[in-house]
TrEMBL record:
UniProt keywords, alphabetically: Signal
Protein's UniProt name: Uncharacterized protein DUF2490
Phylogenetic placement of the source organism: Bacteria, Pseudomonadati, Bacteroidota, Cytophagia, Cytophagales
Signal peptide from the UniProt entry: 1-22
């Protein structure tokens, strides 16, 4: 039988671990933004283990207004088995000044990454572990450039609410926490905490609505005999996402509705 108490303990542990790892408290903010995510996904099939996806994303500084950011990315995946997938991908990320879009981008980032995804199943809880290594090239306004590496780890939980597994007609909950590590510092660069609800309309269409808090951390410093501790700044965002799957052949295997972002 599905034990809801065990689920709540897992969720509380996930959030507590995130806060403990950060070792700092986010500056309070009442500002809300909006993330729009549209994904076309081609899962692996019984006849081939190859797959891929493309995604477009737009973000606004306010709720449905003050657009300032977009992403365009895609990748190729290969399923080593049903629960192990590797991927290589690339993307373009543009940040603008929402107060004056006519001045052009503040920076444009080109990114390449390598990724490993492991899936686990415990009763009705699905766990997704995602490990990602990124190489990032920045072009800033003013003709300055920079290169950075970054490592990301995301633990994503999916819980089907009205059926034993996720399929057509399933309402599901999704919760994840993702940490971003930067070898140049701050080592703990960012934390992303998400909670949302989704619905699978058919094998092809899945939609989710949720909340994400993204908190960025600055590095501690000691200059001129003055110590500056880690400072964090967080922001809440409404997330609206739609996934369309390209189904090549009949595939009865359960597909986790993971956001590739």
């Amino acid at each position: 039988m599905f034990d809801t108490r065990r689920l709540w303990l897992l969720l509380i542990s996930l959030v507590s671990s995130s806060v403990a790892f950060a070792q700092t408290v986010s500056q309070p903010t009442n500002t809300w933004g909006t993330w729009f995510i549209g994904t076309v996904l081609m899962p692996a099939s019984p006849s081939t283990r190859w797959g891929g996806y493309v995604e477009v994303q737009a973000r606004s500084n306010g709720v449905f207004n003050q657009y300032f950011y977009n992403e365009l990315k895609g990748g190729i995946s290969y399923d080593l088995d049903r629960n192990v997938q590797v991927m290589a991908a690339a993307g373009r990320y543009q940040t603008n000044d929402y107060q004056d879009l006519s001045t052009g981008p503040l920076n444009v980032e080109k990114r390449v990454w390598e990724q490993l995804v492991l899936n686990q199943y415990l009763d009705r809880i699905r766990f997704e572990h995602r490990y990602r290594l990124e190489q990032r090239w920045f072009d800033f306004r003013g003709n300055t450039t920079e290169f950075r590496n970054r490592f990301r780890y995301r633990l994503n939980l999916f819980i089907p609410l009205n059926s034993p597994k996720i399929g057509t007609g399933t309402v599901f909950a999704s919760v994840y926490d993702e940490i971003f590590l930067n070898p140049k510092g701050p080592v703990f660069e960012r934390n992303r905490l998400y909670g949302g609800l989704g619905y699978q309309f058919s094998p092809r269409w899945v939609a989710q609505v949720g909340w994400v808090n993204q908190t960025n951390y600055s590095a501690a410093s000691f200059t001129q005999n003055q110590f500056t501790p880690i400072v964090s700044a967080g922001k809440n965002n409404l997330v609206l996402s739609v996934i369309f799957r390209i189904i090549r052949k009949s595939n009865d295997a359960e597909q986790l509705p993971s956001q590739p972002d």
